[in-house]
Design goal:
The chain contains three helices and six strands, in the order ααββαββββ. With about 130 residues, it is α+β, with helices and mostly antiparallel strands. The chain has one domain: Nuclear Transport Factor 2, Chain: A (Roll). Strands 2-1-6-5-4-3 form a six-stranded mixed sheet, covered by helices on one side. A hairpin with a 2-residue loop joins strand 1 and strand 2. The longest helix has 15 residues. The model has no long low-confidence stretch (mean pLDDT about 95).
Length: about 130
């Protein structure tokens, strides 16, 4: 439950442009691979999120995450594979459409008693199982 809530907090923060809340879902040394590009550290992740908010403009985005597969659980770390679907709506909230589909590989670690992303990889859907 804690890790699925972590994923929900990430999505809510991303889609409502709360960069600091999104960065709080990462460990202090957290990284992100977004479509093959390494975003090393919270500063780079924050810059990407801010740039995407500008690109999004008045459109509404929702990142929906499901079908989680948990592997290599140690009590302190776990790897989670999840589908994502990204919905985009116009400024009025109408005319929603699927903008993207893919999957996350989330390398989670307990830090300060909380589950956080040590690394999060974002990939477009390619029809192949990632593990």
């Amino acid at each position: 439950a804690e890790i699925t809530e972590l994923m929900a907090r990430y999505a809510w923060a991303y889609d409502t442009n709360h960069v600091e809340d999104l960065l709080a879902t990462f460990t202090s040394d957290g990284t992100m691979w977004a479509f093959g590009v390494l975003l090393g550290g919270r500063d780079k992740i924050g810059q990407m999120i801010a740039a995407n908010a500008t690109r999004r403009g008045d459109a509404g985005w929702q990142h929906l995450t499901d079908n989680h597969v948990f592997q290599d659980y140690t009590g302190k770390t776990v790897t989670v594979y999840s589908f994502y679907t990204m919905i985009e709506a116009d400024a009025s909230g109408a005319n929603g459409r699927v903008r993207a589909i893919g999957y996350y590989t989330s390398y989670c670690r307990k830090e300060g008693g909380k589950w956080l992303f040590a690394r999060r990889d974002v990939a477009r859907w390619n029809g192949k199982r990632p593990w």
